[in-house]
Amino acid sequence: MNVLIPITALFFLSVVLSCNEASGRSDLRQVTSAPPQQISKQDSDISREAAVRIAEENAKKAYGRLDQFTVIPCEQQAFWRIVFEPTPAMSGNAGPEYLIDKRTGLIVGKRDLPLGDGSSSEFPARLQKIDGEKAIAIARGDATMTYGSLSNYDLTACELTTTWRVIYSPRKGLNGGGPEYVVDKFSGTIREKKYYQ
């Protein structure tokens, strides 16, 4: 009886091994030596169109019809910034801005921004508008007084109809946020600034 147990165990072991060979299974070392399949960051981020849809769905709840806005998506490293710029016919001079996380599609920020002086249609065509470089220089002049060096920040500049949106975002691994500006295209005035410390 004592001899029968080891013989039975040996028989079952040989059957299991032969089944593994027949089914094409390899040993554990070969299975774990293959590198795991990587998913690239670009493939996992939500698209511009998806970010706009998310912002529009939320904006419809607050504003109803959205035909009074021009939607301007602005891409940053980790976020989509979706700006709803009021059309010239719309009274008032602010529009909502959404900050949407690229990885999750969640709205992580929303606020109304001043987007010009509300009279852009009255400016003559010959009046010179400031370009992106000038808007960045205006924002950088203010930002360096508060933040010092901006070398650890990524710069994004988005052109709207009557303003420039200039954003300094901290590089990966840094906490907090950087300065953000709304610069008027006609006067070069900083219409709004926000600091994160």
Write the layout of secondary structure elements.
Blueprint: H1 4-22, H2 28-33, H3 41-44, H4 48-63, E1 69-75, E2 79-86, E3 94-101, E4 107-114, H5 132-147, E5 153-159, E6 163-170, E7 180-184, E8 190-194
Residue fraction in strands: 25-35%
**Helix count?**
5
So what's the overall shape?
A: globular
- In whole angstroms, how far apart are the ends? 79 Å
Kindly identify the CATH topology of the largest domain.
Nuclear Transport Factor 2, Chain: A
N-to-C SSE string, H for helix and E for strand: HHHHEEEEHEEEE
Walkthrough of the structure:
A hairpin with a 5-residue loop joins strand 7 (180-184) and strand 8. The chain is of the alpha+beta class and 197 residues long. Residues 8-42 and 118-124 have low confidence and may be disordered. Helix content is 31%, strand content 28%. The radius of gyration is 29 Å and the shape is globular. A four-stranded antiparallel beta sheet has the order 1-2-3-4, with helices on one face. The termini are far apart. The protein contains five helices and eight strands. The chain has two domains: 44-115, Nuclear Transport Factor 2, Chain: A; 123-197, Nuclear Transport Factor 2, Chain: A.
Provide key terms for this protein.
197 residues; alpha+beta; Nuclear Transport Factor 2, Chain: A; 2 domains; four-stranded antiparallel beta sheet; 5 helices; 8 strands; globular
